[in-house]
Amino acid sequence: MPYFNMKQAIIAVGTNIGDCQQNIQQAVQAINLLPMNTQVLKEAAIYETEPFDVPDQQQNYFNTCLLIETDFSPEALLGACLGIEVGLGRVRKVWHGERIIDLDLIFYEGEVRETKELVLPHPGYQERLFVLEPMMDLCPSGIFSEWNFLSEYQELKALENR
Ligand SMILES: Nc1ncnc2c1ncn2[C@@H]1O[C@H](COP(=O)(O)OP(=O)(O)OP(=O)(O)O)[C@@H](O)[C@H]1O
Ligand SMILES: Nc1nc2c(c(=O)[nH]1)N=C(CO)CN2
């Protein structure tokens, strides 16, 4: 019987320690091993980006975004992502410090949250070309569910090209 309950979400991935391509690959594998029918449907290109809004000297980041489907709730999906970060060796030391892997939940369908643990859509994604650019690979119209991020992408891209 067809199964209609799956939800789609976008996860932004960032890494700037160690073998960054491998870190991303391991994150994708870990997401595909999650329960609740979770799987990566589409991977954006990987972009090398300069550190943005960081407190110290850091290596360039490698950023991408993943379109996934899942039966997890938004809260459970975030918990699963935080578990993958820990499993891949992430240690939190300072705010916006360098990291082996960062998995941010940008959108979960049209869901909105404003709790201490989970804010949806992810706060600040509109100011981050390193998130918007790979999201355009996943959604070339600049639209995901109720969210239209095309103009934010175009504005930041134009600034970058000046
Ligand atoms: N949409 C979301 N995606 C990921 N984490 C979130 C989200 N909303 C709230 N959080 C909370 O943010 C906390 C800190 O996340 P993290 O340490 O990855 O922040 P950061 O990546 O350094 O900064 P930023 O959130 O600005 O990218 C997490 O423990 C999580 O509970
Ligand atoms: N280029 C780039 N800069 C960042 C990134 C990131 O993933 N890429 N993540 C941050 C905190 O989440 C802070 N700054």
Q: Which short descriptors sum up this protein?
A:
single chain; 162 residues; alpha+beta; Alpha-Beta Plaits; 5-stranded antiparallel beta sheet; 30% helix; globular; binds adenosine-5'-triphosphate; binds 2-amino-6-hydroxymethyl-7,8-dihydro-3H-pteridin-4-one; folate biosynthesis
Q: How many DSSP helices? A: 4
The hetero molecules present are:
adenosine-5'-triphosphate, 2-amino-6-hydroxymethyl-7,8-dihydro-3H-pteridin-4-one
- Please give the share of residues in helix: 25-40%
Query: Mean pLDDT, rounded to whole units?
Result: 95
> Radius of gyration in whole Å, from Cα?
15 Å
Going by CATH, the architecture would be: 2-Layer Sandwich
Name the beta content range. 25-35%
Q: Which superfamily, in CATH terms, is the homologous superfamily?
A: 7,8-Dihydro-6-hydroxymethylpterin-pyrophosphokinase HPPK
Order of helices and strands: EHEEEHEEEHEEH
- CATH topology description: Alpha-Beta Plaits
Assembly type: single chain
Level-1 CATH class name: Alpha Beta
Biggest β-sheet description = 5 strands, antiparallel
The rough form would be described as globular
Structural class: alpha+beta
Topology:
Blueprint: E1 7-15, H1 20-32, E2 39-43, E3 47-49, E4 61-70, H2 74-87, E5 102-108, E6 113-114, E7 119-120, H3 129-138, E8 143-144, E9 147-148, H4 150-160
Antiparallel strand pairs: 1-4, 1-5, 2-4, 3-4, 6-7, 8-9
The structure holds adenosine-5'-triphosphate (ATP) and 2-amino-6-hydroxymethyl-7,8-dihydro-3H-pteridin-4-one.
EC number: 2.7.6.3
GO biological process, one term: tetrahydrofolate biosynthetic process
InterPro entries: Hppk (IPR000550), Hppk_sf (IPR035907)
